[in-house]
């Protein structure tokens, strides 16, 4: 499905031709793209939500770190390849891994608050989450990366920087 074919599919939808060739091809391409590298159809709603999170962070996430927004935007552009061309695992695995990275940052920053205070507290008390956060802080120290919040100030464990 080329981008021009999607325009043809939109024209068929505009004419209320829901069974047109281009509409069916577009739906099949979207199914292949959103099923992810593992081709698991049940993952389509999760992947669709992850794409919405990318849009949230890249376009509407002015409070997020500019680099995270840049990664989210670049990942959205990479997903354009999956929408238009054949999805080989070797090509789209990295795209979905970057999607996971942005979604994890969103979950830490905003998503847990949407799920309620009990879920957020349980997440922050989880020993695996604490170890991963500590490991990331250690890695940031080794690499000399400082929190943009101030020189020498490391972010608190279990928090993402959202200004």
Overview of the molecule:
Helix content is 71%, strand content 0%. The chain has a domain at 3-115. The protein has 163 residues and is mainly α. α1 (3-14) packs across α2, α2 crosses α4 and α5 (89-115) crosses α6. The chain has helices at 3-14, 21-34, 44-60, 66-84, 89-115, 117-125, 127-143.
Average per-residue pLDDT, rounded, comes to 83
Helix/strand-derived category reads: mainly alpha
* N to C succession of SSEs: HHHHHHH
Number of helices: 7
Concise synopsis of the structure shown:
With about 160 residues, the chain is mostly helical. The protein is built from 7 helices and no strands. It is elongated and about 55 Å long.
Could you name the key traits of this structure?
163 residues
Task: Annotate the secondary structure layout.
Elements: H1 3-14, H2 21-34, H3 44-60, H4 66-84, H5 89-115, H6 117-125, H7 127-143
């Amino acid at each position: 499905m080329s981008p021009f074919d999607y325009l043809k599919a939109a024209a068929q939808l505009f004419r209320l031709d829901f069974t047109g060739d281009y509409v069916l091809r577009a739906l099949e391409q979207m199914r292949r793209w959103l099923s992810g590298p593992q081709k698991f159809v049940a993952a389509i709603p999760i992947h669709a939500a992850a794409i919405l999170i990318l849009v949230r962070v890249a376009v509407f996430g002015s409070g997020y770190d500019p680099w995270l927004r840049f990664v989210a935007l670049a990942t959205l552009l990479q997903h354009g390849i999956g929408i238009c061309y054949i999805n080989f695992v070797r090509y789209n695995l990295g795209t979905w891994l970057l999607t996971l990275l942005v979604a994890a940052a969103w979950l830490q920053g905003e998503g847990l608050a949407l799920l309620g205070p009990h879920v957020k507290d349980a997440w922050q008390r989880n020993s695996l989450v604490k170890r991963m956060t500590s490991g990331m802080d250690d890695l940031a120290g080794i690499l000399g990366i400082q929190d943009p919040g101030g020189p020498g100030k490391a972010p608190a464990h279990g928090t993402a920087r959202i200004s």
